[in-house]
Amino acid sequence: MNFLFRIFDIAGPLIPGVVTAAICIAVGVGVQIRFRGETVATRFRRPMVLFHVYLFVAAAALLAKLYWPVAFHAAYMVSLLVLALALVLAVVTAVMDGFLGRYRNISVPSILRDMMIVVLYVLVILLVLHQEGVEVTSLITTSAVVTAIIGFALQDLLSNVISGLSIQMERPFKEGDWVKFDTFEGCVTEINWRATKIETRGRDIIVIPNNAATSAPLINFSAPSSVHRRRVSVGLRYEASPNRVHECLIAAARSVEGVLSNPAPQVLTRKYNDFSIDYDLLFFINDLPRREMIESNVMTRMWYYLNREGLSIPFPIRDVNVRTISAADEAAAHQNSVAELEAVISRIPEFAPLSAEERNYLAVHAHTRRFAKGECILEEGVPGISCYVVSEGQVRIETASAESNLPVELATLGADQYFGEQSLITGDPTMAAVWADTDCVLHEISKAHFGEILVRNQSLVDALGQRLSERAKERRAAQKRFGSESRPGEESTEPAGFVRRIRSFFQL
User: 197 in helix, strand or coil?
Assistant: First the structure.
């Protein structure tokens, strides 16, 4: 019993710290259980470790008091330093991660957290030393002289630290922002005491000293918003009217994924050159890391739209045409192409009433259209004015599901196959969307040329109406076999109804 009283008497200076550490450990365990997996629980691990270290050092100080009194004071002071650091870390974690982070959704930068820990720790150490009888005034005076000497030696490092604090206070950028320093551009991944790190498009990490980041011009592409205007330029021949060019380029930009519809794309007529008129296509994006890919897609899509409109990009030199084949060979190749297209037209059931001469007329006057992979050729529900024959590539026909509103693939068409034939004759809205699965070359038979045939031979209208009626009845029978309902526009299968729609569509 006397031994125990002696132990309590010797451990008197350590008891308050041990009790404090025990209480904090119990609270820390509760926090880690309550907020398991969250940031506040993870950050409480460090002070918990330090509290356990304190208990170990306190036990060592107690043993020193019993068996090696000379070392007790040093061990006791070390235990106080460890306990002070553990308490500071626990308080900062509770305030910044528990109160501000979890309940107020305020993210505190790591550099401010570290500075708060350092300031509080220094204040606590000075208070502990004062309570232990150390002359704090002389210590501060001495440390000020030492600090001045160290400051001169580490002025560049201190400049970076102060600049880092300035960045955290002014917040010209934050982690996750897309920025540009001088010639370096990328995403901010870290802002620490000494430097700011950005990751470029090439997945390289650029380390920029904080004092350089605050003194050099800075562009923050993520503020005030992520929407930015881009510009691509093209020169076209003088034969192309500017308004027609404007419409074509705007349509090309709207068709590219990543180009915003609001603000809308614009085209500027910039300059009249010796060989071309220069145009600037302006469009907006909100995904700057993909800027190069989006611009490339816009430039690619421009070529297809210009090609379909018959608009060419001139060379900045004279065109020199060297013929390696004869005109007769070219004419023969054209005749073969027309014959192949005419053969496909003859296999289209809706065109069965046409004569061979009329099918040849459509083949000769068909327009060649090129579409890029992934481009929408026809939208679902749009009134049809053309029939298309696939010459090269593959197209995909799909419609939106009534249940999920997701696209459902109906068919794929390859070379010498066709679509849009009934819409061409009646103007009915398209029943499905058509997309280019690959780069495609299509022959377009337009309403204008088909109308020319009907104007010359209006007796075809009755024959076409009869043929469309037969086709509608065949589809209705197939729908009944498979238990599906008829679609809008297919209710009437009488020839007279189709004749009226044909005459109304072509204004006959």
Answer: strand
* 36 Cβ neighbours under 8 A, 6+ residues apart: none
Residues 391 and 407: beta-carbon distance below 8 Å: no
Q: Residue 239 domain-assigned? A: yes
Beta-carbon-side half-sphere exposure of residue 401 (alpha carbons within 13 Å) = 7
Q: Which amino acid is at 122?
A: V
Identify whether residues 357 and 497 lie together within a single domain: yes
Q: Are both 69 and 192 inside the same structural domain? A: no
For residues 280 and 380, state if they share a domain: no
Q: Taking the model in full, what pTM does it have?
A: 0.59
* Continuous H helices in 238-376: 242-254, 291-308, 327-346, 356-364
Return the CATH number at 349.
2.60.120.10
Longest dimension (CA), the chain: 128
Residues 210 and 246 in one domain: no
Residue 191, strand partner residues: 196
Q: pLDDT tens digits, the chain, 508 residues: what are they? A: 555 555 555 666 777 888 888 888 888 888 888 888 787 788 888 888 888 888 888 888 878 777 777 787 788 888 888 888 888 888 888 888 777 777 777 766 666 677 777 777 777 777 776 666 666 565 555 555 455 545 544 455 566 667 766 776 667 888 888 888 878 888 988 887 778 888 988 888 888 887 777 777 888 888 888 898 999 999 998 888 899 999 999 999 999 999 999 999 999 999 898 888 999 999 999 988 888 999 999 999 999 999 888 888 876 655 555 556 566 666 676 677 888 888 888 888 777 788 888 888 888 888 888 998 889 888 888 887 888 888 889 999 888 776 666 778 888 888 888 888 878 888 888 888 899 999 988 888 888 888 888 888 777 888 888 877 777 777 666 556 545 455 544 556 677 778 788 888 878 7
The domain in which residue 486 lies consists of 335-506
